[in-house]
Amino acid sequence: MDLDWLRSNDRYLATSLTWLRMRLMLAIDTASGSSVSTVVPQPPQQRSRWWGAKPQPVVTPPPQRISPRAVEQAAAARAQAGAISPEPALHTVARLFGLSEFERDTLLLCAAMELDPALGGLCAQAHGNPGMAYPTLGLALSALPEPAWDIVAPHRGLRRWRLVEIVQGAGQPLVTATLRAQERIVNYLKGLNYLDDQLEPLVSPLGARGGPALPPSQLEAVSVLRDEWLNGGNAAVQLVGADEASKLLVAARAATEVGLVPYRLEASLLPTAPSELDELARLWRREAMLLPLALYVDAADLADEAGKFSPVKRFLSRVGGASVLVARESWPELGRRTVVVDVAPPTAGERAATWRAELGGGAPAEVVSELAGQFALDVGAISEIAAGGGGRNRLWRACLHGTRPRLDSLAQRLQPAVGWDDLVLPEEEMTVLRQIAAQVANRGTVYDEWGFGERIVRGLGVSVLFSGPSGVGKTMAAEVLAAELELDLYRIDLSAVVSKYIGETEKNLRRLFDAAETGGAILLFDESESLFGKRSEVKDAHDRYANVETGYLLQRMEAYHGLAVLTTNLRSALDVAFLRRLRFTVDFPFPGVEQRRELWRRAFPGHAPSSGLDFDRLSRLQASGGMVRNIALNAAFLAAGEGGVITMPLVLRAARTEFRKLEIPFQEKDFV
Question: Which segments carry the region annotation Disordered (predicted)?
């Protein structure tokens, strides 16, 4: 802050207070002539916020005769002190809020009680009442030039913008009610400018200025938002899209270019009562005039249930100025001219350029291409990760860690502990699995470098269906893919996604897919027929909405850019329209004798003590891969408790227990 201006502003306030004292003394002389000095107890509410002084008895000064000539000289001195650049804060308030000279001087009278508590004595003397040591409308009308009654009208600046409060008791005449300047305004008059603390529970700074350069595709959005704000901010600008981080960066950059400080308001925090909404909108508009502010209304997670959009629309129609609504999709009927700006994540090419710029010229081209192709990060996240330095593996892990927080609350992250050698499948199925891994790994090359992504709008991700009975290796195959691709594997918790409340399932799935779009995860939908089943005949509202949810799932699966693996025991239960959208389907057959023999061989680690295991005999048991793993593990625990060696009798005992657990028919002779 300019210290020279602060000194000049203080001089102006000092000369204004001198002029005000003379005006009060002139009013006293005019009304009553000479008077007797009286001790007036100062009310507690008159305690100064500036000096923190305790309430003291206010001694009215001895009567003095004030000549109109002296008042004119004080007014001239005040005008001369106010001829500074930038103008005094009181003049700025008057100009911003359209105050007349009388309103401006009334505000000065109210603020003077905080700047000079001794003025309370003059107020009491002017009122002719020792108990009225405070400003009133009647005092302002009698003591200040060019009086006008309408300054207390709700539409006039002092009340409309909450510059002055009227404290009126029951049955008290308006002219004797206390007039009190708001602390925020008194501080502003002294040169202290800050956001009103009434807004602190609702808004927060959007973020630090600066940061990495935005890509060209997002700079276009910045220019639209910037131009709207420079032209007065009369339009309701909407930033739409699924990439919340990019929308935030665009708004922050536009605010920086216009010279505004952006604040974020969660739409869910808005009050619902119309009067409270209007009061909040008026308060924000006042603050936006006193400070260079921009408002970022975040409604990305707000669904229009039970009219939740209505308070936001009402607020936006009244707040005006530099504000922006942030949502996934555009909203209609906001009460103002609307400008919709789509904000998409950086393209793979733009991400690669950001990686190169942040990592420096020495970054290997293949590492840059790999990171840009796999992780759809915004430029801020790329800059933050690159700042940590390190080689390819550290950067890759940092990208994974950056995508985890949003997904960990929506799904269960699995730790793959298997590889290709652990899978026992027919050669054809193994070939398809390797093709899946290759497609995911080479998406950047095919879609971006070779240009196929320019011709394909939907279905850029890889959607895979694994079908087959329980225990045949579907989940293990997903783990193998995750280990091969060095990606996190998330199993979708259906109990956390599917809701009995209409609309909640769709909302949960939207959050899930949006969080996974950064590309650092493989989504595993176990028993997917419960989510992607055939659409039902519509019999009631719940059936209708269940079909809407299924349609939404099919749409998101087609638009999803990552790898989604779905498993089912009942392929026939899946919606045909959904099957058409899949890139690959892999049938996991129940293992035959040769495959079961191989499963038994691999089930026992090489350093596990075993003796006399007959894999040919074990292969005749109708056991799936999952059953084989359970039997081998249970047999090992039996051996550890009985003799320390895994033998055929122990394996057969464990097998008998497993078959009984699953209620699979068997003959006792098979386990003897």
Answer: 35-65
pLDDT tens profile 79-118: 999 999 999 999 999 999 999 999 999 999 999 999 998 8
Distance CA 532, CA 585 (A): 15
Residues of the chain with pLDDT under 70: 1, 32-64, 208-211, 303-308, 405, 457-459, 493-496, 498-503, 530-550, 672
Q: Is the dihedral of CA 97, 102, 103, 109 positive or negative?
A: positive
CB 527 within 8 A of CB 492: no
Q: Which amino acid is at 234?
A: N
Kindly report the length of the chain.
672
- pLDDT tens per residue across span 434-488: 999 999 888 878 887 788 877 776 667 788 999 999 889 999 999 999 999 999 9
pTM: 0.78
CATH value of 203-342 in 3.40.50.720, 2.60.40.10, 3.60.20.10, 3.40.50.300: 3.40.50.300
Maximum alpha-carbon separation in the chain: 125
Q: Indicate the pairing of strand 488-492 with strand 411-414.
A: antiparallel
Place of tokens 């793993």: 629
- β-bridge mates for residue 297, sequence order: 265, 325
Strands (E), 488-576: 488-492, 521-525, 563-568
Rounded CA separation 435/428 (Å): 11
Closest among 387, 255, 272 to 324, alpha carbons compared: 255
Sheet with 488-492: strands ordered across: 411-414, 488-492, 521-525, 563-568, 462-467, 584-587
CATH topology of domain 414-587: Rossmann fold (3.40.50)
